[in-house]
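By way of example, we now present a protein record of this kind:
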Amino acid sequence: MKILFVGDVVGKIGLKSVETYLPEIKQKVKPQLTIVNGENANGGKGIKVEDYQRIQVAGADVVSGGNHIWDKREVLDFIDDPKKSILRPYNFSGNDVPGRGVIEKKVNQKKVYIINMQGTALMQPLDNPFLAFDKLLPTLDKDAVKFVDFHAETTSEKIATAKYLTGRVAAVVGTHTHVQTNDARVFDKKTAYLTDVGMTGSYDGILGVKDEPIITRFLTQRPTKFDVDEDGRMQIGFCVIDINDQTNYARSIKNYVINPDNQKFLN
């Protein structure tokens, strides 16, 4: 079984990048399951139903979220729709939080759980993700593949989470920081790991937004309004995980980027 995971889609240019590249990537990879992180799809913060639909039509089976999932109030109109495969972080506190933190899919009669969890280091004080995993995992079918989109800020929390979950899930892949890391590996021949899969959007901005407000903020130490760099050149960050569906563990993980300076995957 192959799982294709695409990093944070940022703005209209991110949606265009998904629509441009994802069909060709899927044609080459031939994944059985495609997951796309879409929490930045609408103006860099949040997602609306039309953004979800564009990502789905481009080829996503599941759209995952993160700390910006609630930034567009319109998400509340569809996040509870059982026909929409959209995730928000599992570890939001309370019993009445809209949406789901885990989705079950069937791939060739095999159960696959896609889990969205958010870190707490330098981020919102959600429930402890380590304890949240301890609560969640025993409730899931043991004979199933488990994939984790871990939306977190710090590399240490991401690596620690993957090591804590080694042998309990098939993959832990990081999102949120928008820069793909070069540390793809499989822990103990069981759990695939990548600190960050990168982003999908402008190749020319700073983490997907225009340069000037970011630089101004660093120069002045004052708040500035961030705007998505919608006029930049397109890029897409993704990874492919090969999973043994007999053992439910990962065989391999490979990370890729496509941008104006790196077209190797397309050749």
The first helix runs from residue 11 to 29. The chain has a mean pLDDT of 97.
